[in-house]
Fold this protein.
Amino acid sequence: MKIIPPYQITSEILNLINEAEKYLIIVSPYVNFKNWDRIKLDIENALKRNVQINFYTRFDKENFKSWEEIESLGIKPKLIKNLHAKLYFNEKSGIVTSMNLLTSSNLNAIEFGSIYNTENELTELRSFIKKYLEPNLEKEKPNDEELYLAKEKFTIVLSNYLTHHFERHVNCKWQDGFLCINANNQYYLGIEKLKNRISLSGIVSSDESQQFEEYFSERKKIFETYELFVNGEKGMMCSAVVSSNKSFSHNNFNFLNVMEKKEILGLTYTFINELTKFKDEIYRRKKASC
């Protein structure tokens, strides 16, 4: 085993790819070859030499770009949940490193790496693959819906979701740092920047604000871990608000994971639907009393 200086790690990985004659094992959780044509060409040339390439990467719904990079080379990626290891080896030598096959890692990062070339060391690397990676291969990729949620901009996802469920077009656009949702009433969806907490609000009239607590007292359980309240002085125009007590993984909707996006979609539909029914009920009561 020999430590590789950070500035030589990339060149050693490329040498390993070019020297492969029988097989090549690549384990990189994240992959991005943008503006890194050299490594793509070297892998493609290895394929032309009939080198058997096994390419392991991380199974995450949000990591679809890594799979697409690998597939663009004509290689079927082997997907491993929770993969964090990075190693590369052929029948002659191997490299264990902190470096993913990312353009940013190649250009900017200070990485650690070591090279292994004895038969005992290569046997241990092969054993690692056989013992820890192969038994944990995911058999299927995420379904089309999950890939759509991971790839598409959240404004489009939300608009399509609400349009489908309300069976009428619902427009969503950014306005003053909030996602403004036009679904008969105006609604505003946002993420608090410091704590990453979700809030969703809708305008209620003075009459509605006075009856809000009574009407929703039995319906608060619908929102489970969310807090439901009126923001403003009762008897005046104000907002009905549902707010999360937990923090989300990011303060940008596009970077949330698929499960978080699904939760927010469901919350938004439920809140708008319940507030619409509430407004209809208040109008019915008011009309009946006339």
Observations:
- The chain has two domains: 2-136, 144-289.
- Residues 258-289 form the longest helix (32 residues).
